[in-house]
Amino acid sequence: MGVFGLFSNRRPRMAELSARPPARRPRGRLSLRITVLALMSLAVVLVAIVVDPRPLGSDADVRAGSTLSRIPPKPSLSIIEPDVIVTTFSVSDDMSMAEVGLENASGVTFTASNGNLQAGTDGSLAIPLGFASATQPASVSVSVQGFPQDVIRVYYYPASYYASVGVDSEGGIDLFTTLPRADNKNRVELISPPTSASLIVDPATWQGIRAQWGFAPKGMALDEQIRELYLQYDQLNRQSSDECPTYLDGSTTFTDMAAGRCSVWCTGYARMTRDFLRSVDVPARYISLGGSYVYLPNGVLAESSEAHNTTDMWVDHTWQWLDATFGVLKATGPDGKVLTLDGVMQLLGDQATRDEISFTRLDPSSEQWKTLTYEQEDDAFKQDLASFLSSDKQMIIGNTGAG
User: Fold this and answer.
1) What does the mean pLDDT of the chain come to?
2) CA distance 63 to 277
3) Could you tell me the pTM of the whole model?
4) Among 397, 2, 399, 6, CA closest to 197
5) Which residue ranges of the chain lie beneath pLDDT 70?
6) What are the beta bridge partners of residue 142?
7) Which of 24, 6, 73, 2 is nearest to 309 (CA)?
8) Given CB 3.0 to 4.6 Å as the disulfide criterion, which of 113, 187, 217, 382 pairs with 31?
9) pLDDT tens-digit profile of 8-64?
C-alpha cells in the first residue's frame, strides 16, 4: 500500500463515524476547555467503565444528534486538568488492559475499582478495560478526584456497531484525552507552492453539478462560494444511514449524497471540497491525519487518537486549511495571518498558545461566516479539535504533496 493509502484505505475508523457535519447542525457532544491543575502530586484519578445499554439503531444519540453512535458523550473538562503529557497508547491482545504512556506523572496516585494505581518507572499507566465481553460500545473513563469531568477516555466500538451502519470492521479502540499530547516530530506539512496536479478535476462534471444545484457563480468571491457549498452539504447530507464509499472522487460522492444513496463523514467532505475548489481553479489537496495504530490479533484496530481527513487550498501564496466537517473557512494566528494546518495543530497542542487562534466558521443561526477565538468557541468544537487535530498525529498528503 502506498503512502496515500495509509489512512484512507484501511478499515473505516472512528473519524468516519463520529466526525461531525458543518457547524450549523445541532450537536449534543460536549467538549473540553483545558487548563492546568496545581499541586499535581495530590491528584487522585478514578477509573470507571461505562457501557451504553441502548439498542443499536435507535434514535437516542448522545454524541452528536445522529443515529450513528451509541456511546456516552466525550467528556467536557471545564476547569481542571493535571499537568501530565500523554506520550503513547497501547492495548493488550485480549483487550483487558490499556497502557497510556505519561510524562510528569511521578507521584500521582490513580484509583481503579480494584485499588490504587501508579504509573511505572517508565511512566506507563495500566488501565483495566474488560472490553473482551462487550457487545455494545463501551468506554473507560479517567477523572481527577473532586472534579466532575474526565481527562482520559478509552472508547471501544465492537463489530456489531460497525455492522449497524453498514461498515465491515472487526471493531475499534481509541484514546481520547484532554491532556496535552507529545508532539509527533515526524509530522511534516509540505508548504511549497502547488503543481498542476493540485488542479486535476473533471470540470464538465462539476459544471453540471453547479447548474443542477444552483451553486454560486464561478466568478463570485471564493469565501461566498465556499459558504454556499457548506450550506448545500448541510441540506443534502444524512439522507441515508449508509456511508458513501471512501474511494470515490468528489463529484461522484456529491452526486450519490445528493441522491440520498449514502451519507458522508470527513472523508467525503474532504474529497468533495477539494474537487469543488479545483473546479473553480483553486489548487486544493486532501489531507489525512492519523495517530499511531495497530491491529490486535482479533482484528480490532487500536489507535492513539481518532483519524481525520481534511482539506487545504492555495490562496494568496499560502496553503490555507479549511474543513467542511466542522464548517471552518480558515484559522488565523495572533498576527491575523492565515494558519496552515500544521500551524493550527502546533498552537492547539500548547495550553499557552491555543487561545491565540481565531476560527472563521459557518454560524448556525445566521448562515454567515463568524470569527471567534478559541476561548469563545463552543465546547463541541473544542472537543472536535482535541479529538481530530491532536498533536500525536501524522500528516499524509498523497500524490507527492498534490493531495
Assistant:
1) 79
2) 31
3) 0.78
4) 399
5) 1-82, 111-115, 144-149
6) 47, 152
7) 6
8) 382
9) 333 334 444 433 333 333 322 223 222 323 323 333 333 443 333 322 222 222 223
Residue 253's SS3 state is helix
d(CA 341, CA 320): 7
* Phi, psi dihedral angles at 201 (to 5 degrees): -165, 165
Distance, in Å, from the CA atom of 382 to the CA atom of 374, rounded to the nearest integer, reads: 8
The ranges assigned to domains in the chain are 5-177, 196-396
Residue in the block written with cell 473546479: 279
The single-letter code of the amino acid at 170 is: E
3-state helix, strand, coil in the chain (%, to 5): 25, 25, 50
Instruction: Give the pLDDT score at 115.
Output: 62
Q: Dump the DSSP string for 94-110.
A: TSSEEEEEEES-TT-EE
CA distance 4 to 391: 20
Sheet holding 97-103, edge to edge: 85-91, 97-103, 124-128
Set of cell numbers at residue 266: 470527513
CB-CB contact of 119 with 108 (8 Å): yes
Q: How far apart are CA 383 and CA 387, in angstroms?
A: 6
- Give the residue among 219, 206, 223, 328 at the shortest CA–CA distance from 266: 328
Q: 3-state DSSP call for residue 173?
A: strand
The grid cell for 389 is: 487535530
Q: Give how far Cα 358 sits from Cα of 139, 331, 332, Å.
A: 32, 6, 5
Kindly report the number of other CB atoms within 10 A of residue 214's CB atom. Answer: 8
Specify the pLDDT at position 384.
92
